[in-house]
Amino acid sequence: MRKRRRIWLPIVIVIFGILLLIVLAKFKAKPKKQMKLVKTPLVRTQVFNSQTQTISLFGSGTVKPEKSVSVISQVSGEIKEVTDTMQEGAKFAEGDVLFKIDDEEYILRVKNAKALMLQQQMLYLTEKRNSDIAEFEWEEFTIKYPDAKPDSLTLRIPQLKLAEANYESAKASLELAELNLSRTEIKAPFDGIVMQRNTDEGQYVGPGTALGQIFGTEKAMITIPVKHEEQKWLTKGLDSEVKLSANVGEEEKIWFGKLVRKEASLDMKSRMSNLVVEIENPMNPKNPLPFGLFVNAEIEGKQFKNLYRIPRHLVRTDDIVLTISENKVVFNTVNVLKYEDDFALINKGLHGNANLIIGRLDIATPGMKVRTAKSEKDKLGETKDTEKK
Hints:
Blueprint: H1 2-26, E1 42-43, E2 45-48, E3 51-54, E4 57-65, E5 68-72, E6 77-82, E7 91-92, E8 97-101, H2 104-144, H3 157-182, E9 185-187, E10 192-197, E11 204-205, E12 210-216, E13 219-226, E14 241-248, E15 251-262, E16 273-280, E17 294-299, E18 303-311, E19 320-325, E20 328-333, E21 335-340, E22 343-348, E23 354-357, E24 371-372, H4 373-388
Parallel strand pairs: 1-24
Antiparallel strand pairs: 2-23, 3-18, 4-13, 4-17, 5-12, 6-8, 6-11, 7-10, 8-9, 10-12, 13-16, 14-15, 14-17, 15-16, 18-22, 19-20, 21-22
């Protein structure tokens, strides 16, 4: 009996355990189903208002003189004097003497030409008297011989013309000698500044020798390359005001000029249009504009109303700008009038106080619900009010 009990007892225990597990599994509480919550994206927004703005053209260029002339000797001779006004960097006025060439030979040539001219003048006057006498004598002769016809030699017409021609030639020689004498003093053709001097006293020069380089200071010119299509922003054409700026030392200097012309052809390399700006009196002592300075230019353009100026990175592909309305994403197709540095100027597609999404939104679809920092604050305020009540 004891052996049988030992055999059946483990079997009974195992069967009882299995039955207990079946009962527990049958009456175990089922887990409650939970709804999976999709979190609405939180975005940052900023309100942009329309404004009236002038669209200007921007560019840069180098200041150059309107007049740049090489001082050339027109006669030969030794340089006798280089005046103080011909020192590099010196200013001069129109008519100031820059160089003096030895004039002794030219003075002698004037004297010789004057003597020759007086001689030819006397011969001309003598021949004119002879011609008058010949004409008078022929008139007396025709009284007896009315059918006679005189020839030109009889009336001394060729002799008179030759004497007159010699006289005119002598006068021209005298004028040329006086002109060459005057050219021994090389004078400034305009107000300007000396940029370079190539010779000094004692040097022998000939006609065509370059003695130096001078710039006119009455006006300065700047060529500003701009995109060809941007010329449509010009509102006043050739009367547009131009603001010029450059850093001189540690200070920013400002000058003003005007647009005077547009070059007819595009630059073959850059495919840009060149606008030419003129500045009056660039060497004004109060605010001089040095030649060779690289300056930035802002050319006055057209004025537009209801223009939105937004960061250019907010304009997506196909000129789409995202705004938010009633916590939903709105896709706005806009017209970008012009990109200006890091900003886009928009004249169509936005209205009123445009609430733009400025934060990053990787995935966006029209009508998608989003949260804003303002809406979260409003919800938090409502919750606190409810708890207080």
